[in-house]
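Figure 2 data, in text form.
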Amino acid sequence: MNATIRLLMISAMYENGGNTTHRLLDGHPELFVYPFESQLGTRLVNDLLASTFPVKYRWPAFGLDSPPEDDYRAIIDEEAKVRARTPQVSKFRDWPFDFSDDARLARFIDLVGDGPRSTGGNVGAFFRATFDAWKDFRRGGREIAYVGYSPIIVIDAPRILADMPNASILHVVRNPWSAYADTKRRPVPLPLSTYMLCWVLNQYHAFLARDRSPGRVHIVRLEDVLTDQAAALSPALRSIGVSPEGLTGVPSWNRQRLDQVHPWGTIRTPTLAANRATAGELSAEECEAVRLHAGPYLGLLGYGSFLDG
C-alpha cells in the first residue's frame, strides 16, 4: 500500500533550481512537501554512476532481508536527521522543527508491517512516517500527495517509476552559465569540466526518461518557473492529481514565507533579474567553455541565445 502513495519527485543538477522549485510548492494545500532535501539514497547503491554522484542523492537500494529498522537506518537523509538529532550543527537550526527521528522510525516500522517488503513500500512509508512524526507541520487537511527533492535523482527515473506506480518526476534545469556561477560560490567548487559533465548527464537522463515515460516525467526550465509558475508546473501537478490553483507564487517552508531560499539552496533571490545577473559573473572565457561543454543541450532547452538577451 505504501508504494501507491502519490509522489512528485523533484530532480535537478546542483544549483539548477531544485530547492527553489521545492520551496515554491511548499505552500500548496494539497501537498505534503518534504522539509529539506529528501536524501533517500543508501550505501547499497552501487553502479557505474555511484562514482559520479553522491549515493545520498540516489534512489535507494535495500537488503530487504533484515529487520525494517535496518532499512530505515540505511536511508541517509542527512539534512533531516542532523536537524533532528544534532540541531546545533544544522544549517536549519534557527527554524522551528518539532520532530523526532526515533518517532519516525517507530511509525515507519508500523507502516511497513510484517508483510513482504519492497523499495517502493519503504519509500512510501518513509514519506508518510515523516509527516506523521512532524508535530508542528502546518497541516491544512487537504493534503493528498507528497513532494520530495533529491538532486540528480532523474538518473534513476526507470527505478522510481517502476517502484512507485503513482509517482511522477519533475526535472528542473537552469541555464548552465548561472548554474556554474553559483557553483563557484561553494567552499570547494567543482571544476568547470566536471560540473558540466554532470550537468549534461542530468539532461541526457531527463530527456531519455521523458521519451520513455511521457506523462510521468516532466522537464521544466527554472526560467519558465520564475516567469509563470502555474504554466510551468501544471503538467507535473496534474499528473499526480493535484490542481495548480493551489500554488502561492512565493517560496516557503512549513508554509511560512521565505524572503530568500537560502539556506535551502544557493539561489538566494529567485527572480529572472538575479538569474541573469548571476550568469554575468562569469568571464568571457568561462562563458565560452560552458557553451562548448553544454553542446546540443543548449539548443534543445532553448538556451542558445541566453547570453545575447
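Caption note: Residues 2-308 form a domain with the Rossmann fold fold (CATH 3.40.50.300).
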